[in-house]
Amino acid sequence: MTTMAHPTGANRATVDDDESTTTLPTTLAAEFRAAGIRDFSIEGTERAAFSSDASLFRLVPAAIAFPYDEDEVRRILTIARRLGVPITSRGAGTSIAGNAIGRGIVIDFSRHMNAVVDLDPAEQSAWVEAGCIHADLQKRAKPHGLRFGPDPSTHTRCTIGGMIGNNACGPRAMGYGRTGDNILALKVMLVDGTVVTLDDTDSSETFPRLHELIAKNLGTVRTHFGTFSRQVSGYGLESLLPENGFDLRRAFAGTEGTWGIVLAAKMRLVKDPSFTSAVVLGYEDMVAAAHDAPLLKDFPVAACEGLDSRMLARVIDTKGAEAIPSLPEGAGWLVVELTGEDEPELERETQRLISESKSLDSAVLDAAAAAEVWAIRADGAGLVSRTPDGRDAHAGWEDSAVPVDHLGDYLHDLMDLLDEHGLWAIPYGHFGDGCLHMRVDFPLEAPNGQEVMRDFMVAATKLVARYGGSVSGEHGDGRARSELLSLMYPPAALDLFTQVKRLFDPQHLLNPGVIVDPDALDESVRLTQLPLRQELPGKLAMAYQGESAGFVSAVHRCTGIGKCRADTAAAGDIMCPSYQATRDERHSTRGRARVLQEMVSGDLLEPRWDSPEVHEALDLCLSCKACGTECPTGTDMSTYKAEVLYQSYRGKLRPMAHYVLGFLPQLARLSTPMAPVVNRISRLPGFGQLAKRIGGIDARRSIPQFAATTFRKWWTTTAEAGPRSNRSQTPPPAEAGEPSAGTLTGGSRKTDEVVLFADSWSNHFAPRILAAAVAVLEHAGVSVRVIDQTVCCGLPLISTGQLDVARANLSETITALDATGDVPIVGVEPSCIATIKDDSAKLVADEASARVADRVQTLAQYLLSIGAELPDLSGVEALVQPHCHQSSIFGNAADKELLARAGVTSQFLGGCCGLAGNFGVEQGHYETSVAVAEVALLPALRKQAAARTRSEQARSQTAEAGADESRLQVVLADGYSCRTQITDLSDAESVSLAELLAWGWGLDPRR
Predict the structure, then answer these.
(1) Where are the beta strands (DSSP E) in 870-935?
(2) How far out from the chain centre does Cα 219 lie?
(3) Can you give the pLDDT at residue 13?
(4) Could you count the other beta carbons within 10 Å of the beta carbon of residue 654?
(5) Which residue(s) pair with 905 in the sheet?
């Protein structure tokens, strides 16, 4: 075992572990209140959420502060100096090297200091606060034809301040340089509270001691720093050379918060290229691809990424083959983006690259396919975080870089080194400029796991140094690699780091343990601090397939990459709706995972299922299922929440809402015979409010009205009254909520057969939708069957954690459906068929559930699969709110294709509606439910209503002139929850896909 001693400096600020969990948080809270700090926390839930970033490491902070402005930062810093408490700056916490965690005060800039302060299109620049999200800056710049050049894979959530801290690069650094290359000015608070603005002027007069120190060490700086573009390790002292103008703003990039606190920055913007070309080159393996990367220096390349076939295999496993665009032959690829202002010239350069490469095969991608490939690459860190047999693969050696001419040889030797150490990794990354990413399966839970990691990291550092490379290419050194700098740099360079650090931070208050006087690389590893407990009280209700220790290893799936913090709704995704509404780390998937990790370890939190901190973190989880598929690591928080609720309340009285909402399908079955009376009573003044109060339902929510005739009753008494061809062409009058079969053709020959799953919600509250589905299916020539038994998927019981009863319900449903043979099963309520397809594998987990799951389809999927003729819906404009469970389990591709084929102009919204089954109905959730709806749904509804008003006004004017321009605007929502939320929070009315298709065929005049 190789060890390197790093004695703690005499002046280094430290926090005793016991103090950080007891007296210091209380002291800091009192100090913050006295100083007028408006937003901070010392609560266990929040400290657990901030105990890690996207790295291997765990340091529980004493307090987290969320400053509103520069003055509050100064007051926080004053308190830290007086008490000798370390300060760590944090943006989105996407640091993979452990740069954004600390035992003292963590200052989170992303909550309040996150604005684009000023954008000057003429100067092509923007002043932003440190917590400004990269994607927000891009959004502001795009209308001007501008962009910020560097774009890390975390660009949807990382902050500009964090990018400066690491000197981040991303794929397009080949075209635009590193973050430090794009800084025009920096506003920095030094450790004594002084604020300085650093720009392109010489800073030697402001920092004369630093200028003198560099002048005495010019030989060391010129020899060892700035040797190639991806040398990010250590301090970028080459920017302070006389020939580089003693450029302190650029030198600040990559200091990882150890020199000062970045408050704001003026960043260079660049014009978007007029033309881009995306080409994929296929190779025998990744080493062959790496050997060809130097070729790209002779072409107008903005980005070049290495992509391993095993990454794509992971995507196929989780999302299906349709999620992968067609790629050229090979097991390793270079994905190359070329840019230019002359389209014919760019096409020639693209073809020249293909012809001069040594690739086996190649393909030029269109814009849509290129976007799919870049999205896969952006999720790389999560996709490679598990081995094929389900073991964890970890960061640590995930960011090495060498001059690109050496990349092929270095990668070859590195893969051999992994084999020698008995380790596994998938290489990928920024091959165009020699930066290599991977996750390694260090056996951290094994007794010798830390020793295995240390030995490999030391050997790999010696290897990368032989090739003139760097242990860090863009992620910074942090706690993962700072200790290794002594193997990369000579003593003179290390001593220079120490002297520079001392000038800026004599007390070692700023992010101690990083770069200078570093923590040991295995000192604070999360999985060694939080060992996987083999047992928690009680037998698990869910099956955690592929998990070595069930629930306790499942919650460690989260690697912290933070995709759950991104504005995913803007891209049409969902995760994580509660974070989108609250912007609180505790209410992100990552934050909840951190709290659960603390709970199963019994360290910061007690190892109890009913831990108050755990329930606080999970309370606002909507169980939308999005994290199970959208999170690259597959962190499935809805399952974890159901398990926690089950274990916490097993054998105990539950909140009344669990009984009322969990058993609502059963209550509906009992109430149906008296539906008119029940509906009338629920509308009586005072009675409805009393019932909601007793049932734990928010007073502002509507009580659903029971249908006078359920679908099942209609099906058995009317729909099966005789041969389809003999049915009346005119349906009987229907009361509100009653089913209406519409006009059934009966003339089409039945060539296919389906089982229509009559879910509880549609059966009791919206039978018209099931009836519309029958009409549409029969019109397509399909014979429709409905099982005789009244069964339920049990979703309300699952979401409230009543898993024993839920299993019984779901098992009964699976048995009944399995007995129907092998014909497709179609449903109209997305949440119910998603439960059959997804939750049955976790809760029932037998062969029958697997067979049934394989047969379940959405209506759109089934109609497309049989090539059904579609009605002409040209002129219909649909605002579509997909159900979260459908988006997560089935996807929306079939619905989009079907509507497009039918001529519908559709806009599919991202984000959750906010009701999410029982969530938005329960007391205490209303405000969050509405806030979630405000992310995408409600603004879209208001916009549609305004457009409709303008259209009606225009139509009334043109009608006088004889013109008739009519377009039908509809709100399309298949989920009962989604339709309820739309009704409760707006004046809009929504319809289901089945109703729209039936209306299009003239089968349902009431639409």
Answers:
(1) 876-880, 905-908
(2) 46
(3) 54
(4) 16
(5) 877
Cβ 973 vs Cβ 996: under 8 Å: no
- Closest to 385 (Cα-Cα) out of 633, 636, 152: 633
Longest dimension (CA), the chain: 100
Q: How far apart are CA 338 and CA 332, in angstroms?
A: 19
- Gyration radius of the chain's alpha carbons: 30
In terms of pTM, does the model score above 0.85?
yes
Residues 829 and 665: their CA atoms lie apart, in Å, by: 14
Please tell me the number of Cα atoms within 13 Å of 99 on its side-chain side. Answer: 34
Tens of pLDDT, residue by residue over 366-423, are 999 999 898 888 888 788 888 888 788 999 999 999 999 999 999 999 999 999 999 9
CB 113 within 8 A of CB 160: no
Tokens of 59: 């340091």
Query: What residues contact residue 92 under an 8 Å CB cut-off, 6+ apart?
Result: 110, 133, 154, 157, 158, 159, 162, 562, 565
Q: Is 365 helix (H, G, I), strand (E, B) or coil?
A: strand
What is the residue whose two structure tokens read 């190649």? Answer: 362
- Residue 893 burial (C-beta neighbours within 10 Å; 0-12, 13-18, 19+): middle
Counts for the chain of helices (H) and strands (E), in that order: 46, 25
382: closest CA among 528, 562, 544, 524? 562
The whole-number average pLDDT for the span 498-522 is 97
SS3 content of the chain, % helix, strand, coil (to 5): 45, 15, 40
Average pLDDT, rounded, for the chain: 91
pLDDT classification of 325: cutoffs 50, 70, 90: confident
Residue 870: exposed, middle, or buried by beta-carbon count in 10 A (0-12, 13-18, 19+)? buried
How many C-beta atoms surround the C-beta of residue 914 within 10 A? 32
- Crossing angle of helices 589-601/612-619, nearest 10°? 160
Dist CA 805 CA 820 (whole Å): 24
Structure tokens at 787: 């099982």
- pLDDT-derived band at 701 (thresholds 50, 70, 90) equals very high
Contact 88, 257 (CB under 8 A): yes
Give the sign of the dihedral formed by CA 130, CA 132, CA 133, CA 138: negative
Tokens 């896909």 belong to which residue?
993
Which stretch of 267-276, 660-669, 813-822 has the lowest confidence by average pLDDT? 660-669
Q: Which amino acid is at 866?
A: I
Q: Which residue bears the tokens 């490379």? A: 469
Asked if residues 672 and 706 have their Cβ atoms less than 8 Å apart, the reply is: yes
SS3 586: helix
Q: How far apart are the first and last CA of the chain?
A: 73
Name the one residue in this structure whose structure tokens are 């579509």.
880
CA distance 247 to 229: 17
Question: Strand 332-340 vs strand 361-365: parallel, antiparallel, or unpaired?
Answer: unpaired
Cα distances from 984 to residues 588, 799, 867, 918, in angstroms, run: 26, 22, 37, 14
Amino acid in the structure at residue 366? D
Query: Is the dihedral angle over the CA atoms 560, 68, 18, 481 positive or is it negative?
Result: positive
